[in-house]
Write a structure and sequence with these properties.
Elements: H1 3-46, H2 52-84
């Protein structure tokens, strides 16, 4: 494999890594916002301003968002491990 092709492959990997990082940060921010919403809903419910259905929905959304963020983190770690083990991009042997 030519040095030019290897450099291009590494550049593409870096772009993909940056995209994954960006999406992960967005998911984490969204999960934090959902947890804040659930906390505020809990307070509203305690004060009688919100019903039980709204509280349970906010909690379910926060839990689902946290699960999505955890799956994204796990996928990132898994693919980083595959790359580090040269199981995806084996640049030395092409």
């Amino acid at each position: 494999m030519s040095a030019r092709r290897a450099a291009r492959s590494l550049q593409l990997v870096e772009v993909m890594r940056q995209q994954v990082e960006s999406k992960k940060r967005a998911l984490e921010a969204s999960a934090l916002a959902m947890h804040d919403k659930a906390r505020l809903m809990q307070r509203a419910y305690a004060l009688g301003e919100a019903d039980l259905q709204a509280l349970l929905l906010a909690r379910r959304q926060a839990t689902a968002q946290s699960a999505l963020a955890a799956r994204a983190g796990a996928a990132k770690s898994y693919y980083r491990l595959l790359i580090d083990a040269h199981l995806i991009w084996d640049l030395d042997h092409e």
